Amino acid sequence: MGTGAIKKREEIDPGFKWRLEDIYADEKLWEADFDHIKELASIIEGLQGTLGASAAALLKVLQHMEELSRKAEKIYVYARMRRDEDNANHHYQALFDRARSLSIQAGSVTSYIVPEILTISEANLQKFMAENNDLAVYRHYIEEILRQKEHILTTAEERILAMSADLSLAAGRDRKSTRLNSS
């Protein structure tokens, strides 16, 4: 092989490759997190309309949302990096598509949270934070929501915006497949 030739992935020293097994040792663990995200999304969806009931209710949804966000990002990054190792590998293309679709669904399910927090009076939010020390972790998040209040959409508008991400991605896929098929 000449010095300018591109090596195949299996010919590259492992020290120069991603260690994706540090993220997920195997795909069964990825699938378990994928399923857990779907469960969390269902739980979060069921909490809509309860955030102003108490400090505990607000804390519960914020903790679930944070866990969902972290896990969704983890499965997305893993699937994206696996796909990027070999863009011709259909298995990892499908894995990435599933991760992307689930991330969009998660965004749609959680889209009510910020507008619903804004329906809680600032006095009640302060009371909740004084009552429950565990909410202190989310103080900056809540303060940023209040600061940006005039720029935040309604629950219905946020949901439409979150769902539209899937449409914009579909349009991009259609253009790409059209370009590939016309070549």
Write up this protein.
With 183 residues, the chain is mainly alpha-helical. It is 68% helix and 0% strand. The chain has seven helices and no strands. It has helices spanning 27-46, 55-85, 90-109, 113-118, 122-131, 139-147, 155-182. The longest helix has 31 residues, at 55-85.
Distance between the termini: 30 Å
**Topology order in helix (H) and strand (E) letters:** HHHHHHH
Shape: elongated
The largest sheet is: none
Overall SS class? mainly alpha
Number of helices: 7
| Rg calculated over all Cα atoms | 21 Å
Mean pLDDT across every amino acid position: 86
Number of strands: 0
- The percent of residues in helical segments reads 55-70%
Approximate strand percentage = under 5%
- Uncertain ranges: 170-183
What layout of secondary structure does this protein have?
Layout: H1 27-46, H2 55-85, H3 90-109, H4 113-118, H5 122-131, H6 139-147, H7 155-182
Helix pairs in contact: 1-2, 1-3, 2-3, 3-7
